[in-house]
Amino acid sequence: FAGTVRHYNRGWADGFNWGIKYWEIWNEPDGGSTMWCLPEGDKAENGDKEEQKRRDQKRRDLFVKFFVTCLKRLKTEFPAAKVGGPAMCDMNRDYFRALLAGCKEAGVRPDFISWHHYVDAPDWIISEINAARKLCDEFGFTDCELIIDEWHYFNYDLYGWAELRSPDPEIQKRVWSGPGSHNGIDSSCFNLTLLSKFQHSCLGQGYYYGCNNRGSWGFKDAMNAKYKVFYGLCLFGEMMRGYTRMFASTDDGTVSTLAAASSDGRKRALLVTDYRGKGLEVAVDVKGIPADAKASARIHDYTHDCAPADFMFADGKLVLKKTDAQSAAFLVTFE
Predict the structure, then answer these.
(1) What is the pLDDT of residues 172-195, one digit of tens each?
(2) From CA 276, how far away is CA 327, in angstroms rounded?
C-alpha cells in the first residue's frame, strides 16, 4: 500500500507526482466474499449458526488488524496524507465500533471514515450521518471526517439488485420506466433533497454513484437519452456555479429548500424540492426578498425538464404550481 502512494505521489517506480490527498483503505469489507474473505471460506457448512458467527467475527477481526496496520504504516511515511476508510456497505455500527476501537488501542487516528448508501429515504441517511458523528466522538476521534463516497436512490419496493440487472423486458420496464424508476423523477428529487439536507449536516463529503456516461448508474440510457437525474443534477450545479453564498436549508414533510445568493448579493436563488409529495402546489415562506424583486421559476418533474413554471409571489409567500401529484423540483430566482 505504501508503494502505491509512493508511486502516485512521489514518482517512485516510474510513477507520478499527482499530490493525491485522500487514501481509502479497502472497499466494502463487510460485503460479499469478493471484497474480504477468509482462507477457509466465509460460509459455515450445513448452516451452522455458531460456526457462522465465529467466522463472521474472525473475518471482521482480521480486517480490523489489516486496517490498523495499513493506517499506521501510511501515516508514518505520509503524515500529510488523509488516510481512512473502509467504504462500508452502509453505516455498519458494529463494524465501525470494532474498527475505531482497534485504532484507539493501537494509538492511531483515522482522518476519515467512509461508507455507502443505496436507499430511498433522505432523512434516514441524515440520521446515519449523525450516528457516525456520535460514534467517532465517542472514541475521541472528534476531528475524524465523515464521507459517504457512494450514494444512489434505490427503490426496494419496486425492484431489487437482481431485477436491476435483468434482461427480461417486463422487469426492465418496471425498473426503468415510471416516476419511481431507478433514474426517474423520484430518483432525481431524492438527489436534490439529499444534497439540500447535506448542506446543514455534519457530513464532510458526499459522492453520487453515477458518473458513467451511460448505463444503470449513468446519466443516459443505452439510446443516449438523458435520465431525469441528469436534469436534476444540472439544477443543483447551476446553483453551485451562479450563487456562491449558501444560506440555511429547511425541510418540512416532503418539501425541502436550499437558498443561495450571488457573491454581490444582487441575485438570489431558492431550490424547492417536493420528494414524493402528493399535493398539486407547494407553499414556501420567503424572507429577505424586496417586494419589487423580479422573480422567475422553472419546474423539473415527470413531464418537464427545467421548463418555465407557474407560481405566485406576494407578501413573502411563494406558491409553486405542480403539474401532477408526484415528485417535483423548482429553481426560483430573484433579481
Answers:
(1) 999 999 999 999 999 999 999 999
(2) 4
